[in-house]
Automatic annotation (TrEMBL):
This is Helix-turn-helix domain-containing protein. Residues 86-113 have a biased composition (Basic and acidic residues). Residues 56-113 are annotated as: Disordered. It comes from the Bacteria. Residues 57-67 have a biased composition (Polar residues).
Length: 113
């Protein structure tokens, strides 16, 4: 028991949060805090069957266990290549044919005069 009292010489080491405090820290409803304790996802100090207290370490352990690393930006990503358009070269050849047919029409019309 002496070891426990030695730990509490520093006032910050003896802090116990209520369920309301933990709910405010985690930005969750109190009912969710009780549910997490029942599911053994959040550790607590059980004072009585109805009274629970939480150490800062227990709260931090829950936060750490549910934290995810930030997403990594990949700068070396390749651009997406799209499939070639249907009739890709045919469009250019149609334009050339149209120019040729216009030129041939001009020639024919010049012969009429």
């Amino acid at each position: 028991m002496k070891n426990d009292s030695a730990k509490c010489d520093d006032r910050a080491a003896c802090i116990l949060y209520t369920d309301s405090d933990v709910a405010n820290i985690l930005l969750l409803p109190k009912k969710m805090i009780h549910k997490l304790v029942r599911e053994k996802k959040l550790a607590c100090v059980q004072i009585t069957p109805r009274i629970r207290r939480f150490t800062p370490e227990q709260v931090q352990q829950y936060i750490d266990s549910h934290s995810t690393p930030p997403p990594v930006d990949k700068k070396d990503s390749r651009p997406v290549s799209s499939p070639p358009r249907k009739g890709g070269d045919a469009k250019e050849s149609r334009l050339e044919k149209a120019k040729d047919s216009w030129a041939s029409l001009k020639k024919e019309m010049s012969r009429w005069t």
